[in-house]
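Practice set, problem 2.
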Amino acid sequence: MYVILLCVSCNEKMTLPSRIDMDSETVTVPAAGGRFAVAYRLSSSVGDKSIEAVCPYGWVNSFDYSTDGIVSFNVESNDGKKDRETRITVIHSDTSVVFRIFQHNPGKVLPEELENARWTATRCDFDRTGTKFHALNPDIPSEFLSDPLTGIYKVITAESFAGIYARDWNNDHPDDMMLPEEALVFDFTDETYGIRNFYDVAFYEGEMAVSDGQVTASGATEVVRIEGDYTLDEETGLITVEDKSNMHREHPPCHMSRCQTSRTFPR
């Protein structure tokens, strides 16, 4: 019987597969876009530690890898009406990993945008049926029209109000006629005879205040319509206010949206 001993000596190091780990699976960015970055960890036995990021859409671009462990990139502004998202593939040697970029739509109001913010409306768009007005007394235009038995004020839609407003305007200005559609929009920045109207929303220390008024050459007046602690429903965009102002009124939901760099506040 023969016994054969085989001794195997291995001086070669085992080559472990490369691996990339991202610190964030999703990067959420505002509609305005900007420069953003995400950290990564690379485990690789390959001498070349370079990586490459690839995006199928052009609105994420200008990738930079000059800082070890960081991928920075530019996100262009979202000028559409909907949220959008894409996936970024980070590649090194024979391995890759994917992370997601989610960008809000331009109308999205984020909690961090509210604190200590002050918005000044440039125009007000009335909803045809959703916006309600008190009807004016045709005999005494400075008074609201009320039911003679109950004393309850009569309410009309913005569409009815616009029709009445356009009719009265055209009767008084036959050389400068207007359509009812034009009465569904109020421009706060239009100064007539040195008078400027304004409508402001301010946020401070967890509270919100809504005020409007008028500025003239002789002075200014301002009335606080709503004021109190607020909560923001991020899904619907609705803000609920515990109103502590002296108006003592119930307010219908007010949708706040922005048009690129300005914001509109439909009443």
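Problem 2, part (b): a different protein.
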Amino acid sequence: MKKLIIASVAMALVIAAAAAEVIYTTNIFRSLEECSRQAVALAETCVKYKQSAEREREEFGVESASVKEKSAESEQAAESKIAELDAMWKRNKLCVMIFGNHAVVKNIDEKVAALAEQAKVKQWEDASVQASSLNSYFFGLADDTHPLLGNLF
């Protein structure tokens, strides 16, 4: 009888640990996906303001102060969101490596570094594409990590 109780308690602990891992990683991946989605939107906004400024320069020879101001604000917001994504990734990377595919984690690491560099040099078209691909990597990593029937067999 003692062996049955011990085995039942051990099984309950394993199930609780698995449930906690799924909840924890789901929260991590959800926050990373949301942050990368916001980074995409902000980078695309920077691209639009950059294109608007170029059109004004072509038509009038100068760009308006309002476009300059909005462009600077959007670039600052995008840089801030990308820095937040970078910090969030660095904070959670080790945990993700425990539960996730190491090749995917390495690719994400490289893309996050490239995204941060592109934001520094204000290459918003490339940053938008990079952030969008990061979003799909986070979604794929979450799919690979969660214990689904397809992942188990």
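Answer key, part (b): The two ends are 33 Å apart (CA to CA). Residues 46 and 75 are 6 Å apart (CA to CA).
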